[in-house]
């Protein structure tokens, strides 16, 4: 009895098993059939693709440009793509800012520095399906060479800098391919902070930008900022050269700290040590004593100040001026302020594109100034601050908040973002500052402010070796350490004065930005040494 | 009584002579002034006016004293700077005249600036406050600052103490403020109102009005000047300064009546309207 039962059971099992097996087989067969079908389809497509890709030669990945040949091809700049070029067939090289496929078309935005233009690859007699697909798959930031027809558009393309035309692409080649995963998206990097918060879209924080500076510098805003900065340097040089100044180069490896011992970088110098110059002060003055009369220099300045603020860098570009004068140090102030006004005018008149580009991401009030520059005396500033309720002594230095408040008061009364504060108290100035002839409490020194922040500290210098030694002694400075400096004044020295500005800070304040790292290409601060 | 004269009598006689001498001087001075008012071509005799008072001649026309500290607030040891923002398309002639008067009364540091909202101004607008003062490098040595800024503003405005004062708008109002630094308005309220009324008439109807309005004002001026030498009666006031400048600004009307012509000559004889005329050349 049991045997039969077992047999029966086994039989059932066997039947079940075979059913399962059958099902399994069926499934596998289906799978195999599908796979075969797919493969056949692919093969067919591939065949048809190969057969149908009439545009095969009009797109693709170029071989790396190793100067294989010298092509006599003119490449048009994106900023020149205006209505004038309509119906012309042109070549250009640019980056792919975005590419987006939509059915039988692919829309691209091609970008070159501050300028971008819309471009289109459409299936037709010039482009195949495969070409459109290729274009849509080009990674962002890749550099491409494009041959296209310039076509007029009926409605202005608001999102691009070139609003009146678009490109109809006939050939597109990738010259340098970008890796697909970018460390930051350029669209995010250009997005104003407010907009990012409102619409929930990403913006890029400063550290990420600075860590990937090469890509961050490609944004339209960065391009505009550094072009403007180049303009500042250019205007500085041109204005001073016209005034008869000579450009000099001063050493940056020096034997003694110039401004005071604390904030100086030490470098090992063979068997001993040396310092990185905190300012070209001493050498500027020596040039005056060497009869160069009026000098300026543009070069790096190193300050080992452990300040992590929005306006301090450990290395920045100093624009310094020094000049001999005839009878009164106001001749120096007039020269410096006129130079600054010429720079402001030059920026106002020639860099509006750049200023507007920066304002799109970082809106701010346009920079205002007076000509000639407003000059207030320290006592007036103290009076204004007293009137506004601030308590400070006549000989106190201005704290940063007081400087900012004063800036606002001056802006309110005179409507200027740039002014000079003259006759600072002697006690708060460096030892080489010339004291006021009539009032020993004050000095022939001045600061200049942009948007309420200090950009220049200057003065008439003590050009008499005797007085200089006395002043140094008063400030408890070791005369031995500054012997060569004092010696420069022993053999006839003209009365002279000057001052220096920081390029990054001036650009930041002119544009109304809030962090000096935005105007420094590869900023250095206590926490950052790369890139 | 013998031949000797009592020294007391001598002293009395000396005093009498002195008083008579002063009276004759005063009479000559008054006659001189009267001449400038009644005879259009007579110039103010400088020798006469210099004996009138220790202050400079032209300021003697303003009676009453003013105290800068009382008007502008305590002197905090720093320059008290009056800032005026004016559009270069409408130079404020009245204020230039008042500036000239202020300079005679006080040590004024005058500066002209061009604001960045304006690309350039003609040279006469840069020199309209006169040559730079020799001591201008020391701001604290001056009683008052007069800072004129040529700026793209819709309406003229004056700023002084940003913490305590709101800006003053309009040339008429700024003129009133500046005038009061020179002399108080008449204490008689009716007279003060008359002065103010002429100031307004000048700025709103003579300078800004239609041809019809201007003609009406000229007629009113003529009849008012028939009753007295100056617009508010016997004394030269802001009314005269304002109306003269507004009339000047509009070029010559087709025909100016006799009284108005005489009055205009008298104004010119006072010698303060030089800056205004210079600018219009």
UniProtKB/TrEMBL annotation, chain A:
Catalytic reaction equation(s): tRNA(Asp) + L-aspartate + ATP = L-aspartyl-tRNA(Asp) + AMP + diphosphate
Stretches for region Disordered: 1-49
GO molecular function: ligase activity
EC number per UniProt: 6.1.1.12
Biased composition (Basic and acidic residues): 25-40
Aminoacyl-transfer RNA synthetases class-II family profile domain location: 226-531
Gene3D superfamilies assigned: Bira Bifunctional Protein, Domain 2, Nucleic acid-binding proteins
Annotated InterPro entries: Aa-tRNA-synt_II, aa-tRNA-synth_II, aa-tRNA-synth_II/BPL/LPL, Asp-tRNA_synthase_2, Asp/Asn-tRNA-synth_IIb, NA-bd_OB-fold
Keyword terms, alphabetized: Aminoacyl-tRNA synthetase, ATP-binding, Cytoplasm, Ligase, Nucleotide-binding, Protein biosynthesis
Subcellular location: Cytoplasm
Chief localization: cytoplasm
Family: Belongs to the class-II aminoacyl-tRNA synthetase family. Type 2 subfamily.
Subunit structure: Homodimer. Part of a multisubunit complex that groups tRNA ligases for Arg (RARS1), Asp (DARS1), Gln (QARS1), Ile (IARS1), Leu (LARS1), Lys (KARS1), Met (MARS1) the bifunctional ligase for Glu and Pro (EPRS1) and the auxiliary subunits AIMP1/p43, AIMP2/p38 and EEF1E1/p18.
Its biological purpose: Catalyzes the specific attachment of an amino acid to its cognate tRNA in a 2 step reaction: the amino acid (AA) is first activated by ATP to form AA-AMP and then transferred to the acceptor end of the tRNA.
Xref: HAMAP family: Asp_tRNA_synth_type2 (MF_02075)
The protein, known as: Aspartate--tRNA ligase, cytoplasmic
Annotated gene: DARS1
UniProtKB/TrEMBL annotation, chain B:
A Pfam family per the record: Thioredoxin_16
Protein keywords: Cytoplasm, Nucleus, Protein biosynthesis
Domain AIMP2 thioredoxin-like: 78-169
CDD domains, sorted: GST_C_AIMP2 (cd03200)
Superkingdom classification of source: Eukaryota
Record's protein name: AIMP2 thioredoxin-like domain-containing protein
Transcription keyword on record: no
PANTHER family noted in UniProt: AMINOACYL TRNA SYNTHASE COMPLEX-INTERACTING MULTIFUNCTIONAL PROTEIN, AMINOACYL TRNA SYNTHASE COMPLEX-INTERACTING MULTIFUNCTIONAL PROTEIN 2
Subcellular location: Cytoplasm, Cytosol; Nucleus
């Amino acid at each position: 009895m049991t045997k039969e039962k077992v047999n029966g059971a086994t039989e059932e099992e066997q039947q079940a098993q075979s059913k399962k097996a059958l099902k399994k087989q069926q499934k596998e067969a289906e799978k195999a059939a599908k796979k075969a079908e797919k493969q056949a389809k692919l093969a067919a497509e591939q065949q048809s693709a190969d057969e149908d890709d009439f545009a095969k030669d009009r797109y693709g990945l170029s071989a790396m440009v190793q100067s294989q040949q010298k092509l006599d091809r003119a490449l048009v700049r994106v900023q020149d793509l205006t209505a004038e070029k309509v119906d012309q067939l042109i070549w250009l090289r640019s980056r792919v800012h975005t590419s987006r496929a939509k059915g039988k078309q692919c829309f691209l935005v091609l970008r070159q520095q501050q300028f971008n233009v819309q471009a289109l690859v459409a299936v037709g007699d010039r482009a195949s399906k495969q070409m459109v697909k290729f274009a849509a798959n080009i990674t962002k930031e890749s550099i491409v060479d494009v041959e296209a027809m310039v076509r007029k558009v009926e409605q202005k393309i608001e999102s691009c800098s070139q609003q009146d035309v678009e490109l109809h692409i006939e050939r597109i080649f990738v010259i340098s391919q970008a890796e697909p995963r970018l460390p930051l998206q350029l669209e995010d990097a250009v997005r104003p902070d407010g907009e990012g918060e409102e619409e929930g879209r990403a913006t890029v924080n400063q550290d990420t930008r600075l860590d990937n500076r090469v890509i961050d510098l490609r944004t339209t805003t960065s391009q505009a900022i550094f072009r403007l900065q180049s303009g500042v340097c250019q205007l500085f040089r041109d204005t001073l050269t016209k005034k008869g100044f000579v450009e000099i180069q001063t050493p940056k490896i020096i034997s003694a700290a110039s401004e005071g011992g604390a904030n100086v970088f030490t470098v090992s110098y063979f068997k001993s040590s040396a310092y990185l110059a905190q300012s070209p002060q001493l050498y500027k003055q020596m040039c005056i004593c060497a009869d160069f009369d009026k000098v300026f220099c543009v070069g790096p300045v190193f300050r080992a100040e452990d300040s992590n603020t929005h306006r301090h860098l450990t290395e920045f570009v100093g624009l310094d001026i020094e000049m001999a004068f005839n009878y009164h140090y106001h001749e120096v102030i007039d020269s410096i302020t006129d130079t600054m006004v010429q720079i402001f005018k030059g920026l106002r008149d020639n860099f509006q594109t750049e200023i507007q580009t920066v304002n799109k991401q970082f809106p701010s009030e346009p920079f205002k100034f007076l000509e000639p520059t407003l000059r207030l005396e320290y006592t007036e500033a103290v009076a204004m601050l007293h009137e506004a309720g601030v308590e400070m002594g006549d000989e106190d230095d201005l704290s940063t908040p007081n400087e900012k408040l004063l800036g606002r008061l001056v802006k309110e009364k005179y409507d200027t973002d740039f002014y000079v504060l003259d006759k600072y108290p002697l006690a708060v100035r460096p030892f080489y500052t010339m004291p006021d002839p009539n009032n020993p409490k004050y000095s022939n020194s001045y600061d200049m402010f942009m948007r309420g922040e200090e950009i220049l500290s200057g003065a008439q210098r003590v050009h008499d070796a005797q007085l200089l030694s006395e002043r140094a002694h008063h400030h408890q400075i070791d005369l031995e350490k500054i012997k060569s400096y004092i010696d420069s004044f022993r053999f006839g020295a003209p009365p002279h004065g000057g001052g220096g500005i920081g390029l990054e800070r001036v650009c930041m304040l002119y544009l109304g930005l809030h962090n000096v790292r935005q105007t420094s290409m590869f900023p250095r601060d206590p926490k950052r040494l790369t890139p | 009584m013998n031949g000797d004269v009592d020294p007391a009598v001598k002293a009395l006689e000396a005093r009498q002579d002195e008083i008579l001498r002063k009276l004759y001087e005063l009479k000559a001075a008054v006659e001189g002034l009267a001449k400038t008012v009644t005879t259009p071509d007579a110039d103010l005799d400088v020798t006469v006016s210099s004996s009138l008072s220790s202050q400079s001649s032209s300021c003697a026309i303003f009676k009453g004293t003013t105290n800068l500290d009382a008007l502008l607030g305590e002197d905090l040891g720093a320059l008290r700077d009056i800032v005026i923002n004016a559009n270069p398309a409408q130079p404020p002639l009245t204020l230039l005249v008042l500036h000239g008067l202020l300079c005679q009364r006080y040590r004024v540091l005058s500066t002209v600036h061009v604001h960045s909202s304006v690309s350039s101004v003609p040279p006469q607008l840069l020199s309209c406050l006169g040559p730079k003062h020799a001591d201008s490098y020391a701001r604290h040595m001056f009683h008052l600052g007069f800072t004129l800024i040529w700026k793209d503003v819709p309406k003229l405005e004056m700023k002084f103490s940003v913490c305590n004062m709101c800006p003053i708008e309009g040339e008429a109002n700024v003129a009133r403020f500046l005038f009061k630094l020179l002399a108080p308005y008449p204490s008689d309220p009716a007279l003060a109102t008359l002065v103010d009324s002429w100031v307004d008439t000048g700025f709103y109807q003579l300078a800004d009005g239609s041809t019809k309005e201007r003609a009406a004002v000229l007629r009113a001026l003529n009849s008012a000047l028939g009753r007295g030498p100056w617009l508010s009666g016997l004394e030269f006031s802001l009314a005269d300064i304002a109306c003269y400048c507004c009339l000047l600004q509009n070029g010559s009307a087709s025909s100016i009546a006799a009284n108005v012509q005489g009055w205009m000559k008298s104004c010119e004889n006072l010698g303060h309207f030089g800056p205004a005329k210079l600018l219009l050349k």
